[in-house]
Amino acid sequence: MRTLESLETLRWRDDSRAVLRSAQAYYRRLAASKPDRTVLLGAWANRWRATPRTLEHVAVGSDTDWNTRDMGRWRPPQPESSAYITAEGFRCLAAELSDAWSRRRDVVAALTAAAAEGDRSENAEYIYRKRELAGIDRRIRYLQQRLPKLKVVERTGSSTRVVFGAWVCVETEDGTLTEYRLVGADEIGAAKNYVSIDSPLARALIGRQVGDEVSVRLPSGEARYAITGIR
């Protein structure tokens, strides 16, 4: 005689089989109707066919390859930003790395003191310092990997053409004047009107002269700019 628990287990396994059959049918329809989208799922499908799976893997979601939520959130990797940087920007990043190590020592000391107070699960100071330390460590790792790759560009040539590191004054169609500086991706800042050399605006301005007009495709639509000054 089957117990109630065993009957529930059988019912759970039947539901798991139904989910698996439904997902497989969906993938076959997708492959037939939209072949271009199968590129995103091709690697997953190959691994699914090549690797033995159990119903338990599918039902409880322990198999990371078969996770529809992750597939729905998948985004293509962003292209690596250009490695160019101004001498001023490189000095700022180097100083930031040195300052991060100093702040890390202070945070570690505070974290140690907070940990010694007792129960860590309800210790707000310990939790805050732990998160702060994790953020500092992430930034240190990034700077340590990024700095050796950067190429410092000293501005050369005249101010008749737009080059890396130059200040460019542009006029929009409604007559608004704005001055931007074309810098590396690691030193951009809205407060200083620094724009990345990888941005659509910067790519359109590079090599242009005063009086030239450029068209830039933005999320809000196409915009036109006239170059009124370079320094």
Shape: flat
User: Which secondary-structure class do the elements indicate?
Assistant: alpha/beta
Trace the largest sheet across and list its strands.
Answer: 5-4-3-7-6
Helical content class = 40-55%
The overall pLDDT, averaged over residues, is 78
Order of helices and strands: HHHHEHHEEEEHEE
* Major pleated sheet: 5 strands, mixed
Instruction: Work out the strand percent.
Output: 15-25%
Oligomer: single chain
Q: Report Rg.
A: 28 Å
Count of beta strands: 7
What is the number of domains? 3
Terminal CA distance reads: 89 Å
State the helix count.
Answer: 7
Instruction: Provide the low-confidence segments as ranges.
Output: 1-5, 43-71
Observed structural traits:
231 residues; Helix Hairpins; Chitinase A, domain 3; 48% helix; 16% strand; flat; disordered N terminus
SSE layout and pairings?
Layout: H1 4-33, H2 38-50, H3 55-60, H4 68-72, E1 84-85, H5 87-115, H6 124-146, E2 151-152, E3 167-172, E4 177-183, E5 194-196, H7 200-205, E6 213-218, E7 221-230
Structural notes for this entry:
The chain has seven helices and seven strands; from the N terminus they run ααααβααββββαββ. With 231 residues, the chain is of the alpha/beta class. The chain folds into three domains: 4-72; 84-152, Transcription elongation factor, GreA/GreB, N-terminal domain (Helix Hairpins); 167-230, Transcription elongation factor, GreA/GreB, C-terminal domain (Chitinase A, domain 3, Roll). The strands form two sheets. The chain has a five-stranded mixed beta sheet with strand order 5-4-3-7-6. A two-stranded parallel sheet has the order 1-2. A hairpin with a 4-residue loop joins β3 (167-172) and β4. Residues 1-5 and 43-71 have low confidence and may be disordered.
